[in-house]
Here is the input.
Amino acid sequence: MITRLGVVGHRGYDGLSDVLTFLAREAPVHGLSLHVEGSLAELVPGAAILARPDEVDALLALGGDGTLLRAARFLGGAPIPILGVNLGKLGFLTACSHEEFPAGFAAFAAGRYTVQDRLALEASTTQPDGSVGVRLRALNDVVVHKGGFARVLRLRLFADDELVAAFAADGVVVATPTGSTAYALSANGPVVVPTLESILVTPVAPHTLALRPTLLPADATVRLEVEDAPDEVLVTADGQVGTALAAGQHLVVRRSTAPVRLVQLDGHPFFARLRMKLGWGGLAERDG
Here is the structure.
């Protein structure tokens, strides 16, 4: 049963204040206490300050996809459902728009929703002796890419210790099905239905016509080794946090044991969302 509702939000969106005012009024009506992140405290007087995942039963992410990804990172694998509310234009991962939120919140508070477990990734920088450096967690993708240099990376890609390919490219995107419609899509990767458990590996601008995006089993372990590169090789998770890949290190990416739980409301199936937000199959429906 949900009684404690966490709220994270992006103050750059014009609609945020209206949504928070609505929440402050309506949450007590439904027996919900609000716990807001510190940056929102002045907009919701009297609300508790959100500090840890175990303080809430569910989490609202008010903003866009980036806000939802940040919410997932805050939870750190805790099995808490996230309801994303889109206050911007795209909001592909979110469950409802700003305009739909009053009805969506009423349905959510009444328990009229489903929760979809989305595969997440864990990545670690690793020394040849197996010792682990930095650990990262991602809902969308983990990306290996160069810094501000024009040179390409020379990479070796392994799946479960089997060499898949040695190639030159600008980088590599290791994505979840959820992340197949993010950076991987821009790199000509396929769209993967988010409930299909798998790991998608997509080279970024590979210097060959023979290498294509590859879909691996969800339990595969992906290892990327950099053979020759500029001075700075970077690893980013969901485009928001990252680290440098030091000389002699390689990157290991595998499925996280803890999925991200996304709230789904009626009327927003996956392919309808593709048509409306990404122009899947034509622009008529999106522009109508």
Q: What stands out?
A: The domain at 121-255 is CATH 2.60.200.30 (Tumour Suppressor Smad4). The first strand starts at residue 4 and ends at 9. The helical segments are 16-26, 65-75, 101-109, 183-186, 270-278, 284-287. The longest helix spans residues 16-26.
